[in-house]
Amino acid sequence: MIINLPHTTTRKIAASLLEARESNSQITGRVLTLIVVASAEDDVDHIISVTRDASHEHPARVIVLLTGDADEDTHLDAEVRVGGHAGASEMVVMRLTGELTHHLESVVTPLLLPDTPVVAWWPTTAPDNPSEHPIGELAQRRITNAAHDVTADILTRLRDTYAPGDSDMMWSKITGWRGIVASTLDRHPHEPVEAVTLSGPAGTPSVDIAAGWLADRLGVPVTRVITAPLDDDRVFPVRHLRFDRASGPLTVDVLDHRTVRVALPGRPESLVSMVIRSDADCLSEELRHLDPDLAYANALRGLPRVTVTDERD
After folding, report:
1. Contact, 131 vs 160, CB < 8 A?
2. Helix, strand, or coil here: 119?
3. Which of 50, 90, 93, 282 has its CA 20 to 30 A from that of 82?
4. How far is the C-alpha of 311 from the C-alpha of 313, rounded, in Å?
């Protein structure tokens, strides 16, 4: 069910939510409030689809703030979505223009669920410092998405402004790959790693954060090689990983969009199934824990210790 509320107020939105909840038995208990901040020019259908899919694991009150032109007349249109249109949650989609775009926290505060955690998600461009943004100050967790941020220094900014509770979907994108890497290093022989090389195309922050993770965890020289762009966006971006050890290199190579090859000296190669995770999968993972993600923080800390070379030169 979708309730359209043109030229509305937060009081009317709250009343519509209460009425919809009382009349719709499909709405389950909500475990958090998820605030989504995006531009009206973003792919709104995709953003709503991602939050709806993630809600099946995390029933929530989802508040989508779509900001328009700040120079236009002040205006608020809203949609209240429940039932199949909102997954296992209840969703409010608000389109704001004019002065309201500068006071998002005032718009959203009356709609927050009492006594439940608040999570903020910026699916595209994030503020310079999420923890100091008015929406970020309301939230226990702040999720950004560097892969969709056009800012060139996004990784440096995320590292320099990190505060407990920050996370980015580039980190959850590599969760499955990190599991494969960790299990590979657990195989015999258990030798120290002397150096690491990994390669992937430019403009893919997941490759960079993977390099930072390895630099922090292993404390050895890590080289991140920039390669040509991928022809297939279904292929995992860390195309090649090599651990140099005394007995010979251990390698993890992406063969295609669903297969990874692991090779150790003197042992048969093994093939492991792996696919790129969807935005909904990544958002679901980010919502599973509301405590600070120390592993992500340490990976950011390791970024300055990574040496970058460009294979395209």
Report:
1. no
2. strand
3. 282
4. 6
Segment 128-150, tens digit of pLDDT: 999 999 999 999 999 999 988 76
CA quadruple 217, 132, 93, 289: dihedral sign? positive
Tokens found for residue 285: 């993972």
Whether the CB-CB separation of 91 and 65 falls below 8 Å is answered with no
- Asked if residue 164 is part of any domain, the answer here is no
Task: Answer whether 113's CB lies under 8 Å from 138's CB.
Answer: no
Residue 271: how many CA atoms within 13 Å on its side-chain side?
Answer: 7
Contacts of 130 (CB under 8 A, 6+ apart): 120, 122, 136, 142, 144, 161, 163, 166
Provide the domain limits for residue 47.
2-144
Q: Is 13 helix (H, G, I), strand (E, B) or coil?
A: helix
Dihedral angle over CA of 181, 277, 121, 19, nearest 10: -140
Spatial distance between the Cα atoms of 1 and 20, rounded to a whole number of angstroms:
9
Domain shared by 140 and 6, yes or no: yes
Tell me the three state secondary structure of residue 294. helix
In a domain, 160, yes or no: no
pLDDT tens-digit series, residues 55-88: 888 889 999 999 999 999 999 999 999 876 666 6
DSSP state of 148: G
| Number of Cα atoms under 13 Å in the Cβ half of residue 208 | 23
Q: Which residue in 139, 123, 156 sits closest to 54, CA to CA? A: 123
The answer to whether the predicted template modeling score (pTM) of the entire model surpasses 0.70 is: yes
Same domain (yes/no): 227, 106: no
Residues linked to residue 62 through DSSP beta bridges, in sequence order? 34, 91
Q: For residues 311 and 224, what is the distance between their CA atoms, to the nearest angstrom?
A: 10
